[in-house]
Specification:
With 682 residues, this protein is of the alpha/beta class. It is built from 22 helices and 21 strands. Helix 1 runs antiparallel to helix 2, helix 1 runs antiparallel to helix 4 and helix 4 packs parallel to helix 5. The structure holds ligand C2E and magnesium ion (2 copies).
């Protein structure tokens, strides 16, 4: 049986056998003693009965008073356990008996003969014998020392047997109860003991599987197993420490304490898996120090090591938010930039790295210049496996070296080209601000039913000296990323406000001026004071202004948007949500935002009334604006048909080429002077 192969089973079995044997022996001995005691007692009883009888029977025997003898026997015969009584003369003839019916007979059976002979041969007054479960005692009846007969009493041991049977039964019951109780108690003890042993053996098995996080519950108490349990847990802790050191050493570079190639590839693998699920990009930057060998050769390895440590610390402190910085060996480092939404920002990081390393490094009061070359590969474009991405970043790094070092290169030509363009564009944008190359255009917003002008949107343009007029779509995203948008928007705001004030002063009615702002702008600490100052400077009233923020930006961080937009609305400036319908608004936040107007994105306007889906979406946005008591305007309205559909469905405010393209201030000025109604039905 399987149970008896376990310690628990064996212990229980031994306890069961020993317990039953001992209990059996004890009970058996007890019954035996009781039997002996009761037999003695019966004999004593028989002896005293027979003595009583022999003295009381002497007189009636001598007088041959058979009636008195009979009465005497009846009295004694009624006593318990008495089976038979005989009173005989010296010849053995029966004078009286109990039960009656033996008168004058002589008992010739072997036992009776043996009893009489026994009495004679011993020369004593009485003789006793046990046979067939009976106690047989004979005694002479004497008068004046002369025997005149015998009296014999035979007693049965029925009462004794009954009591012994009862005792045996009870004994057996006690044995069973004691065994059950004993085994149960033993089972409890054994279980407590073996459950802890089982825990220990399972934990040990886990250790062999290299799971060093095993934990057994604390064994309280002072018994051997408890002590062993505590010692085991201590052993696991120190083993864990030891193994984790070992593991750290296996995964980290000893000199710089950065992750090594092994851990780097592991982390890259995780980043790839993560990006695969989220559909994002991962960039791998391979950094190699320029002319490091010369430092090593001329200044020695100790200085070389110091340089490497210094570079590692510098990268670590400047790129806290980057997931992994590793030293791959020698003077090679590598970075992972995880969860990239757009690839463009990688070049910003690469550039920062190149610039950072251009600073001199001070070691032993000596200034050293260590530049670097960087190669970049992007998942999934340049490879889907960690090893491939690293290899391609490495080969891109060689390209950077061959291009003259102190620079970075993407693995794909295309990316390098884009990165270069980006860098050039950024520099251009800065220059454009200095040279005041930005222009503000104005696009009319009209009431589609009355044809009256209600306002205009200020839209920025870049008057590039070579490229001509550049659309904001081309430069706004980079301006937002680099933060230049803050300066650009402030320029547009100031220009727009000045223009508005001028029109008002000239008695024209330009309506409300809508200004596009990014959340980045609104988050500036000085934004509110700057806005107030600008209004004071230009003489522009808050009620003439409306700020537009795109739905996408608002919903990226709605809590924050609620906070800053509240501050703006307190000034009395209107707020509109631009490109509405593209940004997955949460209705809960929409209700809390202090906005006045929703601007239906032009992508939904383009296909109405032909496209059923767009018709449904536009209808839903209009219904939403009504239920939230918000104004509604549609942008990108180019045709009469679109306008009619919108006005018929409750969206009266219209912006689009139908009423006018974004135009220079001079053109708008002329329109304001000439037109009172912008579009009349023909
Ligand atoms: P937006 O704020 O949604 O502006 C509407 C865009 O739709 C403008 O493009 C406008 O020229 C164009 N548009 C207007 N009516 C029509 C039409 O009937 N048909 C078509 N196809 N297009 C129409 P634009 O001027 O190229 O500006 C693009 C985006 O750049 C703007 O979208 C806005 O998000 C941003 N932007 C423009 N100026 C500024 C600015 O000064 N600051 C900031 N932060 N963003 C600006
Ligand atoms: Mg806008
Ligand atoms: Mg828009």
């Amino acid at each position: 049986m399987k149970l008896f192969r376990t310690i628990k089973g064996r212990l229980l079995l031994s306890i069961l056998v020993i317990h039953s044997l001992l209990m059996g022996l004890v009970i058996h001995d007890l019954i035996d003693r009781q039997h002996h005691f009761m037999t003695q007692q019966l004999l004593r009883k028989a002896t005293s009965f027979v003595s009583l009888l022999s003295s009381n029977a002497a007189m009636p025997m001598q007088n041959n008073d058979l009636t008195a003898l009979g009465d005497l026997l009846k009295d004694v015969g009624a006593l318990p356990d008495v089976s038979m009584i005989f009173v005989m003369d010296t010849d053995g003839r029966i004078r009286a008996s109990y039960p009656e019916g033996y008168f004058n007979q002589t008992l010739t059976d072997t036992v009776s003969v043996k009893m009489l002979k026994g009495l004679e041969s011993t020369g004593k007054d009485y003789y006793e014998s046990n046979h067939d479960g009976l106690t047989d005692v004979i005694r002479s009846i004497k008068i004046g020392g002369q025997a005149i007969g015998y009296c014999r009493i035979i007693m049965n041991n029925a009462t004794m047997a009954g009591e012994l049977t009862l005792l045996t039964r009870q004994g057996v019951l006690y044995i069973i109860a004691a065994i059950v109780l004993g085994v149960f108690l033993a089972w409890l003890v054994v279980r407590q003991m073996t459950s802890r042993i089982t825990m220990l053996s399972e934990a040990t098995a886990q250790l062999t599987e290299k799971n060093f996080d095993v934990k057994i519950p604390e064994f309280k108490g002072e018994d051997e197993i408890s002590k062993m349990g505590r010692a085991f847990q201590l052993m696991v802790e120190s083993l864990k420490l030891y193994v984790n050191k070992l593991a750290y050493r296996a995964d980290h570079d000893e000199l710089t304490e950065l992750p090594n190639r092994r851990l780097f590839l592991d982390r890259l693998d995780q980043a790839i898996k993560h990006a695969e699920r989220s559909g994002r990009h991962v960039a791998v930057l391979f950094i190699d120090l320029d002319h490091f060998k010369e430092i090593n050769d001329s200044l020695g390895h100790l200085i070389g090591d110091q340089v490497l440590i210094h570079v590692a610390r510098m990268i670590q402190t400047h790129f806290r938010d980057i997931d992994t910085i590793a030293r791959l060996g020698g003077d090679e480092f590598s970075l992972i930039i995880d969860s990239l939404e757009g690839i463009e920002s990688v070049s910003t990081v690469a550039e920062k790295l190149v610039t950072l390393l251009q600073h001199p490094i001070c070691i032993d009061k000596r200034e050293l210049y260590v530049t670097c070359s960087i190669g970049i590969s992007i998942y999934p474009n340049d490879g889907e496996l960690p090893e491939n991405l690293l290899r391609n970043a490495d080969s891109a790094m060689y390209k950077a070296k061959s291009e003259g070092r102190n620079s970075y290169q993407f693995y794909t030509e295309d990316m390098t080209q884009k990165a270069l363009e980006r860098v050039a564009l950024e520099a251009d944008l800065r220059r454009a601000l200095e040279r005041e190359e930005f222009r503000v255009y104005y696009q009319p917003q009209v009431n589609g039913i009355s044809g009256q002008l209600i306002g205009m949107e200020a839209l920025v343009r870049w008057q590039h000296p070579e490229l001509g007029l550049v659309s904001p779509v081309k430069f706004i995203p980079l301006a937002v990323e680099t933060g230049l948008i803050i300066l650009i928007d402030r320029f547009v705001m100031r220009t727009g406000m000045m223009q508005l004030k001028q029109w008002h002063d000239e008695g024209l009615n330009p309506g409300i001026l809508a200004l596009n702002l990014t959340i980045k702008q609104l988050k500036q600490d000085d934004f509110i004071s700057m806005l107030q100052e600008m209004m004071e400077d230009t003489g522009c009233l808050p009620k003439w202004l409306e700020l537009e923020v795109t739905e996408g930006e608002v919903m990226q961080n709605p809590e924050q948007a609620v906070r800053v937009l509240k501050q703006v609305s307190v000034l009395g400036i209107k707020l509109a949500i631009d490109d509405f319908g593209t940004g997955y608004s949460s209705l809960a936040y929409l209700k809390r935002l202090p906005v006045d107007k929703l601007k239906i994105d032009q992508s939904f306007v383009r296909e109405i009334p032909g496209d059923e889906e767009d018709v449904a979406i536009v209808g839903a946005i209009i219904a939403l604006s009504k239920s939230l008591h918000l104004d509604i305007i549609a942008e990108g309205v180019e045709t009469q048909e679109q306008k009619e559909f919108l006005t018929a469905n409750g969206c009266e405010q219209i912006q689009g080429y139908l009423y006018g393209r974004p135009m220079r201030a001079e053109d708008m000025d002329q329109m304001l002077r000439e037109k009172t109604v912008w579009f009349t039905e023909t």
